[in-house]
Write a structure and sequence with these properties.
Shape: globular
Bound molecules: pimeloyl-AMP, magnesium ion
Oligomer: single chain
Number of strands: 12
Order of helices and strands: EEHEEEHHEEHHEEEEHE
Largest sheet: 6 strands, mixed
Radius of gyration: 17 Å
């Protein structure tokens, strides 16, 4: 039996009572790995570099095999950027190449740059005019209920590519689920962990394009934007992102 495990944590009370987002995590695992995963998530929330959480929500739900759909792992490659300004230019180039208008890409970057503090989820933004569509305020939309089918094989693949740590492991799975949504054109992301400066642009067309520097070290504000085609059914999109169980499957020979 498989289980979906979701964690979100905040400081100063629950998110919905104004608490500051500390960290979140989502996994899908067999029952025998549940205890360890829950302990790891508790540990993450209480010893996070963004601060120690005083509110932690954990949700565990059984998953029926017929609820699962499969999506391919996005191919992975890296852009050049020596500092945040170069990173932002690279991000705009990648977004435009993936089908986002220059105006929407620039507005998206400005929206993330303008955040006073990190949100718990992502903004959904129109890929042509750059307006925010989700209306979910500081919560945003959280992609959830996803994991990789073969965790050990996936870890080996990441290691071969010289990639280590939870950030990239989780981001690549999340981006693969997001890119599989109907109407999705591209995703822009950088971390809210103060010392993790790497970000990415992901798209169905060009895969996961890692950008080494997207912010100054020490900056605890990060975020995500999902750029969608005009006319995308938002209700369906949010339901897919938050509720559809998706297992990510590496397809064929993965190269770094
Ligand atoms: N769904 C939607 N948005 C999310 C989710 C989610 N499940 N998790 C986080 N976010 C949003 C939220 O606004 C966070 O503040 C922001 O993204 C950053 O989250 O080396 O670590 O978990 O290639 O800090 C990317 C680079 C790391 C990895 C991303 O994001 C690499 C990262 P974090
Ligand atoms: Mg974080």
């Amino acid at each position: 039996m498989l289980y979906s495990i979701k964690m979100r944590s905040a400081q100063g009370g629950a998110h919905e009572c104004g608490g500051r987002h500390i960290s979140g995590a989502e996994r899908i695992l067999p029952g025998e790995q549940l205890d360890y995963a829950v302990l790891t998530m508790l540990h993450r929330a209480r010893e996070h570099e963004r601060g120690c959480a005083d509110f932690i929500s954990l949700k565990v739900e059984e998953i029926k095999p017929q609820e699962i759909i499969y999506k391919p792992l996005l191919p992975f490659s890296t852009c050049q950027a020596a500092n945040a300004a170069e990173g932002h230019r690279a991000a705009i180039d990648e977004l435009v190449r993936a089908g986002v208008s220059f105006k929407a890409a620039a507005r998206g970057l400005a929206m993330l740059n303008g955040l006073a503090d990190s949100m718990r989820g992502a903004m959904v933004v129109d890929c042509v005019d750059g307006t925010r569509l989700d209306g979910m305020g500081e919560r945003g939309v959280r992609a959830s209920k996803m994991d990789c089918v073969n965790s050990r094989g996936y870890d080996e693949y990441l290691q071969q590519c010289g990639l280590t740590g939870d950030h990239v492991r989780e981001a690549l799975v999340l981006a693969s689920k997001v890119a599989g949504a109907e109407g999705m054109v591209a995703e822009l992301c950088w971390s809210d962990d103060p010392n993790y400066v790497t970000g990415y642009v992901a798209s169905p067309l060009y895969g996961y394009r890692r950008i080494p520097v997207m912010k100054e070290s020490g900056n605890g504000v990060g975020g995500r934007i999902f750029f969608v085609r005009p006319g995308t059914d938002l209700h369906k999109l949010i339901d897919y992102l938050e509720e559809q169980v998706v297992m990510i499957k590496p397809e064929g020979e993965q190269t770094c």
